[in-house]
Design a protein that fits this description.
The protein is α/β, with parallel strands linked by helices. It contains 14 helices and 22 strands.
Length: 526
Amino acid sequence: MELELKKECLDTYELGEPQTLTQEETAETIVPDYCPDIARIISAEGVVCLHGGTEQDGVTGTVRVTVLYTPENESGVRALEFAMPFSAQGEGLAGCAHVVVETEIELLESRMLNPRKIFTRCKLVTHLAGCRKVCLTISSDAETDPALLVEKRIDRVIFTCGGTAGHVNPAIAVAQLMAEKNPQIKILFVGAERGLEKDLIPKAGYEFRTVHISSFHRSLKPAEIKHNLVSLYNMVRSPAEARAILKEFRPDAVIGTGGYASYPTVKAAAKMGIPTAVHESNAVPGLTTELLEPYAGRIMVGFESCRQHYKHPEKVAVTGTPVREDFFTLTKEAAKEKLGVNDGRPLIVSFWGSLGASGMNAQMADMLALEAGKEPFHHIHGAGKSGYAAVLKALAEKGVDLKDHPSLQVREYIYDMAPVMRAADLVICRAGASTVSELTALGVPAIMVPSPYVTNNHQEKNARALETHGGVEVLLEQNSSGQALFQTAAGILHDDVRREAMASAMAELGIRDAAQRIYETVQELL
């Protein structure tokens, strides 16, 4: 119950004749399928939530009862919260604009009818006083109909994801936040048997289980047909595997963060009545998200413009995609000083992914050679493990020795990505979901060359969404070259007004507290 005293009405507050009403309410509560059977009830307590005053002869509200119990075959204590409506009737209430109400609840009885059903009987004593002026606002978010409500603290949660680090890292970020809020929380990750997640998740310190699920390849080659037959078989058996994991772990919620590995677990959880949410990090929904949209309780996306791509926009919550906290530990000035690029020239940062990209690295060698003439910018390029030697060789063939050009750096991998990205004035990159979330959170303009080799061309769609908002310039790979990249970068960096406008546009899309928003969105489902 929330009572808000309106100060401007204090002088005109007048009490009417007081009323005291007494009544009993009873309810039988069914324990949801995904909660364990009850071994015994420990205690029960209740509060009354009012739905406001009325000009009729009564006051309505909801009794919310919380029952603490020990589950069968589990240690610890769980809580079940449920609601039942009530109405208080009495003479003298008619004509009151609002009603000042105090209600006491006394739980007379709370007992088990069986391991899945609780009977509750309580007595309400309501004290009412009419007032002639609107002096109190009484509000509540309680349900008006009987409804089962599971406790709002998450004690057990399953994350399901896979395929790429862009799907796994957001889940790990939210899991870390949940563990901070509830140190006793039990967290389980579910993914594919052969996915990248099987290495990333155990390294992060979380328990990991697998289901047999694999992708489908769009090819009629014999090897691909064989692969697709295996995938079809996996699709048939993975639901049973997912259900077994859910029944054993008994999660309070299931969160999918992308990749085909999340499909069977989220769908099975939804069918079992377990609250589910799906996070889509790309600007447009991938196939897995499209398939799960009818089942998931919430679809969480990066930007408001993403909502238009869903059949059920009312399910969509704009949360952003989590970004590593260390990206924000330094100011831009401090990051530049740490890297030694604080002489007033802007910093370009470029990378094509951890493994690099041979064609784009060749273009970057051409761009670096053009920069070597006057060194108008600082430039740090991450060439990737497979591209590092090739970029150095290409520069040598062009007569460029990086020892003579300290403003230009080529690295195999940018290990200190947080300060490098924080210091950047312009980034040249692909348009993967993780990169998009980092750039928008930091408010850094970019030149994006979307990878044409990804499913559903989602990178170009990501880039176009940012381009429409004014934060990036998009060059398709077939139209890109070292010369084009250099000219586009120079056009942005030599125009302070344009660069600042692009940076502001990116910052408008950025959501730094994405992990917290995802946590709160999941809480609302409980």
